[in-house]
């Protein structure tokens, strides 16, 4: 597999070298014009000095000749080509400065050949050894200038090339260092993001496990309490709601994240498109699809039926009104379908269990008789009171408060009711479930007149239950009592009974 990202940049950079010749050409082109200007200025300065302070002879009597200065400077500073140009220019200026002015006059009037013949006493064919020696004297200095410019310029070129190679290597190394540093920082960021993601996934898995445990309950109310945590763990929505099917109507029972100005419908009847699609056709709707978005009509982003996988029964609808942009993708749609089936199955199972539990006589979890027994005992105690002339009163207790259906709070509430019956009531008094929702109970009090003693007895029971709730640390749970008359002995018969007991 080919490397990607910064690592690939590093590998590509080693194959993408900058040609030193290109750098040298660009450098020389920019510097050559400056070299020519410097050469003109230096030669003009030397000619001026020769004209002002010496006989104009090209510094023939000065040793070393000042024309060495521009030649050496340009060869050292710019290289071979500029040094040779300086040597040629200095040679021409030096030789022309030392020529007799009469030579120029004859050359202009009679021509260069006549001027040369008169200057040397004949043509080149009549050159004597002395003439050649004089010619060598004039040619030796320019030859040395050319050789010096050549050798010094070559050394300068070699040094410049080496500097360019070192600069190129340094640039490559610096760039490679920047790329490696960038790659390291990117890998470090990626590692941190992975650590955050792994930690988030661990938290999500743990939260999902806790939420899944919360809905695996046997009571519909307990399942409803756990559904909110499960939906938040799986979908992470900002706003969502849960509707239960009541006949031909979907009624909202959970509205999480809704604000006061939200205009979402709390009821969907059988004529609404959402009801027909979700309940009738058992179809999951998503605002991602244009046609399904029209069916939702601004009621949310996703909506799906709560279906029992075991029986196929539709018990309600789960709807998400607001979801983060990055959380809406193909996987989230599939997760929403699975979540709807999961919640629907759990709730349908809880309903079936509650229906089966309605025929039970004793609730082992709460250690008390069920509402079925309470209804039967109420009739029996009413008949018993009518036959023997004894007042019969039932007191119902209903707990209200924050998270009263939480398992620990419900256990504390049941224990408080048992403690009241055990420590404050006669042995014939029993506690019953008034409704199987975990927060409503009933007591049957024989011998208590529902009209004259019912309110006082119920108030005493409430005070006792609240006392045990405070002992259990459930101060925010409030208990309300209601007197339910079962049988009241007529006052004439009651007076006769008291007189008979007195006799």
From TrEMBL:
The keyword Transmembrane applies. Gene3D superfamilies: 3.30.450.40. The chain crosses the membrane at residues 34-56, 68-96, 133-155. InterPro entries: GAF (IPR003018), GAF-like_dom_sf (IPR029016). Residues 222-349 form the GAF domain. Keywords: Membrane, Transmembrane, Transmembrane helix. The keyword Transmembrane helix applies. Pfam families: GAF_3. It comes from the Bacteria. This is GAF domain-containing protein. It comes from Minwuia thermotolerans.
């Amino acid at each position: 597999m080919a490397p990607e990202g910064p690592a690939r940049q590093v590998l590509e950079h080693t194959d993408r070298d900058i040609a030193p010749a290109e750098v040298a050409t660009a450098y020389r082109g920019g510097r050559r014009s400056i070299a020519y200007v410097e050469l003109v200025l230096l030669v003009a300065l030397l000619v001026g000095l020769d004209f002002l302070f010496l006989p104009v002879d090209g510094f023939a009597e000065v040793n070393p000749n000042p024309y060495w200065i521009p030649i050496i400077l340009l060869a050292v500073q710019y290289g071979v080509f500029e040094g040779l140009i300086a040597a040629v220019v200095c040679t021409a200026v030096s030789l022309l400065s030392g020529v007799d002015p009469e030579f120029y006059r004859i050359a202009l009037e009679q021509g260069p050949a006549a001027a040369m013949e008169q200057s040397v006493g004949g043509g080149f064919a009549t050159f004597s050894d002395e003439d050649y020696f004089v010619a060598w004297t004039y040619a030796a200095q320019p030859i040395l200038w050319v050789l010096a410019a050549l050798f010094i310029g070559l050394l300068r070129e070699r040094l410049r090339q080496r500097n360019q190679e070192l600069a190129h290597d340094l640039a490559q190394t610096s760039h490679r260092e920047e790329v490696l540093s960038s790659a390291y920082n990117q890998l470090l960021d990626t590692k941190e993001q992975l650590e955050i993601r792994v930690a988030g996934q661990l938290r999500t898995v743990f939260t999902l496990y806790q939420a899944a445990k919360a809905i695996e309950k046997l009571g519909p109310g307990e399942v409803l309490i756990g559904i909110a945590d499960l939906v938040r763990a799986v979908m992470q929505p900002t706003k969502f709601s849960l509707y239960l099917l009541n006949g031909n109507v979907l009624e909202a029972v959970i509205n999480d994240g809704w604000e006061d100005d939200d205009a979402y419908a709390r009821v969907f009847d059988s004529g609404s498109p959402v009801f027909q699609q979700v309940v009738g056709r058992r179809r999951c709707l998503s605002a991602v699809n244009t046609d399904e978005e029209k069916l939702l009509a601004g009621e949310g982003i996703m909506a799906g039926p709560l279906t029992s996988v075991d029986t196929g029964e539709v018990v309600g609808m789960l709807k998400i009104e607001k979801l983060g942009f990055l959380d809406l993708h193909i996987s989230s749609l599939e997760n929403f379908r699975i979540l709807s089936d999961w919640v629907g199955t759990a709730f349908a199972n809880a309903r079936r269990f509650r229906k089966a539990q309605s025929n039970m006589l004793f609730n082992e979890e709460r250690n008390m008789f069920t509402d079925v027994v309470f209804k039967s005992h109420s009739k029996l105690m009413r008949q018993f009171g009518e036959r023997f002339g004894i007042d019969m009163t039932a007191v119902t207790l209903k707990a209200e408060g924050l998270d009263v259906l939480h398992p620990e709070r419900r256990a504390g509430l049941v224990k408080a009711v048992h403690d009241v019956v055990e420590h404050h009531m006669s042995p014939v008094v029993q506690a019953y479930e008034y409704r199987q929702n975990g927060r409503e109970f009933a007591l049957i009090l024989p011998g208590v007149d529902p009209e004259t003693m019912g309110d006082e007895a119920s108030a005493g029971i409430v005070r006792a239950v609240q006392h045990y709730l405070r002992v259990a640390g459930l101060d925010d749970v409030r208990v309300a009592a209601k007197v339910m008359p079962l049988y009241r002995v007529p006052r004439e018969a009651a007076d006769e009974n008291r007189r008979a007991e007195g006799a």
